[in-house]
Inverse folding.
């Protein structure tokens, strides 16, 4: 199975705190396959788990990687996940 990856530098003022992490989980739960989030240090979590993502202690300026199985909706999902952590 081909996996798509998206590298994102966190731009949310307070990092990945409860509100953005809950939004990431909501987006991931609506997808058909698992969505993983990895940090530069190699730690990872399933995005549907708010507590697991919060435990990564991701801060502003940190680089993370989202990974999801390739599907017709995967690109749009990665766009939406990126928008949560790097709002315009």
């Amino acid at each position: 199975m081909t996996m798509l990856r998206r590298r994102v530098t966190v731009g949310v003022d307070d990092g990945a705190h409860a509100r953005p992490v809950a939004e990431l989980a909501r987006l991931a739960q609506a997808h058909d396959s698992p969505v993983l989030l990895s940090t530069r240090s190699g730690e990872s979590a399933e995005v549907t788990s708010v507590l697991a993502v919060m435990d990564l202690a991701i801060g502003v300026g940190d680089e993370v990687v989202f990974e999801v199985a390739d599907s017709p909706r995967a690109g749009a999902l990665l766009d939406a996940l990126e928008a949560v952590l790097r709002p315009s």
Remarks:
- The beta strands are 3-9, 35-39, 44-46, 63-69.
